[in-house]
Amino acid sequence: MALARYWRVGLRKFEAWQWRRLLREVDDRMLADVGLRRAGRRFVRLADALTPPPRVQIRDCSEADLPHIQRIYANHVLHGSASFEEIPPSTEEMAARRAEVLRHGLPYLVADYEGVVVGYSYAAPYRTRPAYRYTIENSVYVADGLNRRGVGRALLSALIVRCEQGQWRQMIAVIGDSRNASSIGLHERLGFRHVGTLRNVGWKFHRWTDSVLMQRDLNAGAMRPAE
Hints:
The chain is an alpha+beta fold. The chain has 7 helices and 9 strands, in the order ααββαβααβββαβαββ.
């Protein structure tokens, strides 16, 4: 009896291993057809990956949110390597940047936690030349002390959903610092793949800093022509 039980357990483990091995050979677009996305060496359901945590409301940014956004970003500029800026921009400058995002019909979102803005995300054109018009770049920033609480995931998930309602086909993440494991892991969990690292391109806090490039299909990606 014990031998039969061990055999059944071993068979189930072998079948699970075979299933995972086959999934690793499947194209990302085929995975999406069955409701899965690649997350490093794991596979997650799209429904789980794009579901924001409870109590965090993701909404469109208003002008009244800009002072809070400026403070969040200033902390990243002064104390983090996610941004390569060294002098925090003013609230007026942040307002001008938001206006430029909205001018392109792209979303600018905030995470509202019980009436307090605790993070923001937006998409912007990746490059200005016309051939890049279906490719966008995302930015996600979370208030100090709230990392690994699900805020960044909620913001990026909502941003992806909103951008997939538009014409865009590729989303690029330019992540400051290859040591930024939390941001890299977040993007992996939401379907981004690592496409390259620009080594030692930034000098901040008296050390050289990389830029990590990650990419994710939107809508049908390159499966069909854009026009």
